[in-house]
Hints:
The protein is α+β, with helices and mostly antiparallel strands and 698 residues long. Helix content is 33%, strand content 31%.
Amino acid sequence: xxxxxxxxxxxxxxxxxxxxxxxxxxxxxxxxxxxxxxxxxxxxxxxxxxxxxxxxxxxxxxxxxxxxxxxxxxxxxxxxxxxxxxxxxxxxxxxxxxxxxxxxxxxxxxxxxxxxxxxxxxxxxxxxxxxxxxxxxxxxxxxxxxxxxxxxxxxxxxxxxxxxxxxxxxxxxxxxxxxxxxxxxxxxxxxxxxxxxxxxxxxxxxxxxxxxxxxxxxxxxxxxxxxxxxxxxxxxxxxxxxxxxxxxxxxxxxxxxxxxxxxxxxxxxxxxxxxxxxxxxxxxxxxxxxxxxxxxxxxxxxxxxxxxxxxxxxxxxxxxxxxxxxxxxxxxxxxxxxxxxxxxxxxxxxxxxxxxxxxxxxxxxxxxxxxxxxxxxxxxxxxxxxxxxxxxxxxxxxxxxxxxxxxxxxxxxxxxxxxxxxxxxxxxxxxxxxxxxxxxxxxxxxxxxxxxxxxxxxxxxxxxxxxxxxxxxxxxxxxxxxxxxxxxxxxxxxxxxxxxxxxxxxxxxxxxxxxxxxxxxxxxxxxxxxxxxxxxxxxxxxxxxxxxxxxxxxxxxxxxxxxxxxxxxxxxxxxxxxxxxxxxxxxxxxxxxxxxxxxxxxxxxxxxxxxxxxxxxxxxxxxxxxxxxxxxxxxxxxxxxxxxxxxxxxxxxxxxxxxxxxxxxxxxxxxxxxxxxxxxxxxxxxxxxxxxxxxxxx
Length: 698
């Protein structure tokens, strides 16, 4: 067995159980913090002894190192004990014994100092252990010692302090309180400014927390000394170092990621963001001997350091903290710099795509690792084609939106995302990124977008249709049916039906009114056309007829799994909706390691479908379908009534010559259906009758 790898393991870090992944190899034990991404290594050669220990509801291992430090990991099952014990015996040559703890709950006992661990024993069994590197301060009284601890923001309950009462003994020559204090203070991480600083940088511009600070670097910590605030930051709390060039190429950002963060009142600062001018230079002489530089720092530092301020500080921090100094990756934006100008919420800043994540500076500074990202999304920025938004959704459910990014940066950023194999949310398997096409079609700000072009095309088609109507105004219309009461064309012809050869003189007076009436009717036609859907759209909306004889499609492995586990998901998540079931099922399917059973079932179902389709086609199922559908359409055509194409026929009668007897015999419902005469039309008819009567009398 070369290695053991286990997920969902927790490590004790500053009094809090932090989740992560544990990997045991023949050389070392590696724990990766799932929250911060920090990796801690325990070398096999440095181990003193190992114990299997029972925790609350679970099991853990306790590794005691030769230098006196203690590492504890929990989250193991009882069944893992034998497997882990064999691994330690085979690879490390260590016997794993189970450590028994005292559960009596007594608050008096004996204190033992073993390396950097304080052990409180009750009747030769350990009641609890305290790693002294978690102690931030130690105070003494007459017969007692008080220990204060470093706080962890992630801990739901924090241990602030612990007091030990030490009874005096007349026989002892050494004061037991003082002896206790010295044992604690020798191993505690108490920050006390004593001795000279290794390097001092004056009046450094700090963006977060804002102000000008003198930075003094000591062996185990560095100090930020300002006019109002003063911070002492242990080197062990520095998680990462970043050196990022500003977009103007005249300034440089130096970012330090801290865990735990520094506090200013109720505000916590997880990042220190320092800003340097590139032309500012310095010269520092380090207080180290040549031997110290060679043995302690492996010649990574020289006694005299000179150059730009950010470069000198970065080099010293990198060696003393023993952390990698991360710079910009291979990404180069449209402007030729690795920075992308954008906004986060209300503040403007810069987004840097790195080799293993993204970092945004500076308000607030955000570092996102690729392994935390669930998906990214490109979206329009407030409907504008000149910029876009870049959304990053984390696996935890948090979403970060970087807005107002110039459209010229799109191609470079999209290529970078694809190269890093990050899932893009708005592009599917068969979809192409339509947003990219929108950019290519709108290089000019004044150029209309696709929607506007479509609207214009529809308007043009409508205008052409109107011209055709005007040119064919005198020709007979195939769809003309004068019997139809709603027809506008019928009304127009009815109004002219009363005119006679004798109307020629009076017709000239009424021509203006007729022209107005025609325009009015044309407007009504346009309104009706707008309401009616186009023939092409009506065709597309027709549903495909279902073929009951056609074999059912083969189901995928995921759908087979989901159908079997649907009820279980409903039971585990009461009140879950149908869409949420599919989403939850997708997440569970992604985490499922062994999918071979379902893939085999899916392959069998696919074979079943292929065989069924062969027999279906051999029987001519599709042809039958076509013939039946064609017969149906013919019947429909024959059944449809023919429309009259001319005004001749016994069924036609003009409205002016309908007798009163006929009108009285009609039902009221038919009267309602018929269009009412216009008042102007009635006046015209009466005036025509009067003029014809006058001519006859003459």
